[in-house]
Amino acid sequence: MAKIDAFFKLMHDQGASDLHLVSGQQPALRIRGDIERVKYNLLTDDDLRSMLYEIAPEDKVKNFEESGDIDFGYEIPGLARYRANFFMQKNGIGAVFREIPNTILTAKQLGLPPVIPRLASLPRGLVVVTGPTGSGKSTTLAAIVDEANRIRKDHIITVEDPIEFVHKSQSCIVNHREVGMHTQSFSAALRGALREDPDIILVGEMRDLETISLAIEAASTGHLVFGTLHTTSAAKTVDRIIEVFPHSEQAQIRSTLADGIRAVVAQVLFKRVDKVGRCAALEILIATPAVRNLIRESKTHQLPSMMQTGKKYGMQLLDDAIMDLHKKGMIDSEEAYAKANDKAKFRPLLRTPPADFTEA
Fold it and tell me: Residue 130: CB partners within 8 Å, gap ≥ 6?
């Protein structure tokens, strides 16, 4: 057993999502969104480096010493998988580990709206799940892919950096590819995937023009593509995808995207106040013909009103989802206000509304 495994067991027992190990500081855990120190000696650079190098593949250690940053996956059988990131900082080496549970929860267990698992049944098109780092995008996507794995008879390819949730082949064949280990890049894996008879492709991160372009192309040629972006709303996601392309290509991409997109899900995580745990508020845009026309005609500013009137299709605005969680007593007023888009809507819920200079 590696020396660091004791920290992973503590992390698991405490229900922490992340473990922080940084030279010159005590270890820390992120529990329900808050950083909490572990009662332990200050970590020295030499001791921490030795501890971290014990679990890192040799080629990753070499890359880290050359670049100062690496990502990889680490697994403790019977406990969990971990997404690892090593980095250099002022006082020496540092690392952050995100726990990825061995058990994949269903959309129902996660409390997601009924339209989310239905996305697994789409025959083709692009589905984008967005949100800030640590908002549960990977967990939501894992639930959708798990649903597809159970109800379809298809070939699923995932491309991630590193591999997070591991899906065992059920009714589908599932192949996991890790960037840097099994393929050079997201774009290289996507180009290869189109020759590997896929039905469903999961792109861990649509991080550059080439990857986004290939994902849209795959969605437009009869594949179901799932991807993630770091945007905060459905409308901003559509704009972000289009704005990645040179101005001269944007009109064509806008039309192609309008034809290929099927849904955008933007989510935010909240601490629960009714019990231990966290819950997600989701903004959901379903690409109805009317929505596609707005995208094609560059009228994305009208998408929020379309979501408000499209509830029968499963659409909802983020603020409405947050308000619903608050009315159910699941989240507190302060966090609802802090993470809402329309602050004015939530100010009456606060006992002492803050003077928020960002609203000026």
Answer: 137, 228, 229, 230, 231, 232, 233, 234, 237, 264, 265, 266, 267
Predicted confidence pLDDT, tens digits, the chain (360 residues): 899 999 999 999 999 999 999 999 999 999 988 999 999 999 999 999 999 999 999 999 999 999 999 999 999 998 899 999 999 999 999 999 999 988 899 999 999 999 999 999 999 999 999 998 888 999 999 999 999 999 999 999 999 988 989 999 999 999 999 988 899 889 999 999 989 999 999 998 898 999 999 999 999 999 999 999 999 899 999 999 999 999 999 999 999 999 999 999 999 999 999 998 899 999 999 999 999 999 999 999 999 999 999 999 999 999 999 999 999 999 999 999 999 998 889 999 998 877 665 553
The CATH number assigned to the domain holding 44 equals 3.30.450.90
Do 57 and 87 lie in a common domain? yes
Is residue 228 domain-resident?
Answer: yes
Domain end: 101, 136, 170, which one? 101
Residues 85 and 111 in one domain: no
Q: Are the CB atoms for 199 and 224 separated by under 8 Å?
A: yes
The pTM of this model reads 0.88
36, β-bridge pairs: 29
Residue holding tokens 């650079």? Answer: 45
Q: Give the domain CATH number at 307.
A: 3.40.50.300
Domains in the chain: how many in total?
2
